[in-house]
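Researcher: I'd like a candidate sequence for this fold, 435 residues long. If you have to choose between options at a position, lean toward the conservative one.
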């Protein structure tokens, strides 16, 4: 059972409307303390107002820690660069779900379990055929992942810990199969079944790129790069999609439906859709000589254009994932012999210019993970529409870990924010004939 580790430590006082209230201060293990405002409305009749939740902690969590100013990202305490370098995605899944790195035996059992849940119900495959061939694969993901709840009834009881575990394993294992089918369907190619003797990333690459007429030979550098991309995207604290999963789950909705909600949230260009948008932007820029024009546009308040792949709500320093991603990008381009990829030149020059520009320095806008992931994924053969799907595949374990933590937290209540109302006050209905 999940246990709170929050430590109450003193209180702050707040005086409003002549009334002074004490707001308990709560300490975590690291990071800013929080003010407990749970009784604020009861004691003062006031709500807090925080659109975009820039100063609001929505839950207690023991999974992922980010220090955005220092550019630090830890999964269960372990730095992301160490995990990306030394671990595997399956091991990271275990770590995120269980809180500790597995022993050899635990890892073997977990890996075996995930490998044995990769297949989809035969009838599930017919779902894909209901979509238009030109449907965006994220639309297919939202629909089909939600539909998992219609197939796996035996793991939708959120109050049963065993059912929760089975649902977790099913989603981690089946997500590559669903994602690969979303791709194959749009490419007009037959679905390729999973091969359980392959590791997670190799199996996924094969399901995407093998065809019945020709088998797919795993390139270990590409499989390792894929695995690393999954590790880098596995969790990221209380971002928009994770908060969506938690909010959906707070009403008691089943885990498959909650993850589908997370996928929907991830789709937006300000979140997971940014890797697709970043690559489209690099293509639009096209050549190094056009960079100044785009930098100028990004700085123009009257132009909605933003440099995609730059800036982050939390990181006000170089995104630690972007550093690993940049290295991985170079490795992939090297092994594929496309080092001279013109988009990489544009990306590197754009990064250099932006990092020296007063506007970007002052606003602390650094490249984020999406800046280099698009180039890497495209070089690996994925169409841009698939980029966010890969992000969703990798983030599934983070969503599940966060959802499980929430379900196990005894202080969990339905998420129900309030509002600052500025609409019409009460008025009488005017009949249509009098309007
Ligand atoms: N290009 C130009 N200006 C920018 C950019 C950018 N990419 N990002 C932020 N700004 C400016 C913005 O105009 C604002 O200026 P001002 O203070 O003069 O109004 C200031 O920087 C702060 O921006 P904000 O929109 O208030 O910041 P936010 O925390 O709400 O937004 C963000 C964060 C990621 C949505 C934003 O930086 C952005 O739109 N970036 C481009 C999209 C992107 O790359 N998203 C991927 C995020 S990482 C992947 C993930 O975790 O999902």
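Model: Candidate sequence:
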């Amino acid at each position: 059972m999940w246990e709170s580790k929050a430590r109450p430590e003193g209180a702050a006082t707040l005086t409003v409307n002549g009334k002074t209230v004490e707001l308990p201060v709560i300490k975590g293990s690291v990071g800013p303390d929080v003010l407990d405002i749970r009784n604020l409305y009861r004691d003062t009749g006031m709500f807090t107002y925080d659109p975009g939740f820039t100063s609001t902690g929505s839950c207690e969590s023991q999974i992922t820690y980010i220090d955005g100013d220092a550019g630090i990202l830890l999964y269960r305490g372990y730095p992301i660069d160490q995990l990306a370098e030394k671990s595997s995605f399956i091991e990271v899944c275990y770590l995120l779900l269980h809180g500790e790195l597995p022993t050899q035996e635990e890892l073997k059992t977990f890996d075996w379990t995930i490998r044995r849940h990769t297949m989809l119900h035969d009838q599930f495959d017919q779902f894909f055929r209901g979509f238009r061939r030109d449907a965006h694969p994220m639309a297919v993901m939202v629909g089909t992942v939600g539909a998992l709840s219609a197939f796996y009834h035996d793991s939708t009881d959120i109050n049963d810990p065993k059912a929760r575990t089975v649902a977790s394993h099913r989603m981690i294992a089946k997500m590559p199969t669903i994602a690969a089918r979303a791709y194959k369907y749009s490419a007009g190619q037959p679905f390729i079944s999973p091969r359980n003797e392959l590791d997670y990333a190799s199996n996924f690459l094969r399901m995407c790129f093998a065809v019945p007429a020709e088998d797919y030979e795993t390139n270990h550098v590409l499989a390792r790069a894929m695995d690393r991309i999954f590790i880098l995207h596995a969790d990221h604290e209380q971002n928009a999609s994770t908060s969506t999963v938690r909010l959906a789950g707070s009403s008691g909705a089943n885990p498959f439906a909650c993850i589908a909600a997370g996928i929907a949230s991830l789709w937006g260009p300000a979140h997971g859709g940014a890797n697709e948008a970043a690559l489209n932007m690099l293509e639009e820029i096209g050549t190094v000589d056009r960079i100044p024009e785009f930098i100028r546009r990004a700085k123009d308040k009257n132009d909605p254009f933003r440099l995609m792949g730059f800036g982050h709500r939390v990181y006000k320093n170089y995104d630690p994932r972007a550093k690993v991603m940049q290295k991985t990008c170079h490795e992939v381009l090297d092994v594929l012999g496309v080092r001279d990829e013109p988009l990489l030149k544009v990306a590197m020059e754009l990064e250099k210019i932006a990092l020296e520009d007063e506007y970007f320095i002052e606003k602390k806008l650094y490249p984020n993970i999406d800046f280099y992931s698009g180039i890497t994924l495209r070089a690996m053969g994925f169409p841009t529409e698939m980029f966010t799907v890969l992000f969703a595949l990798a983030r599934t374990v983070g969503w599940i870990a966060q959802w499980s933590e929430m379900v196990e937290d005894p202080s969990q209540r339905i998420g129900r924010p309030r509002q600052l109302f500025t609409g019409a006050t009460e008025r009488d209905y005017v009949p249509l004939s009098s309007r």
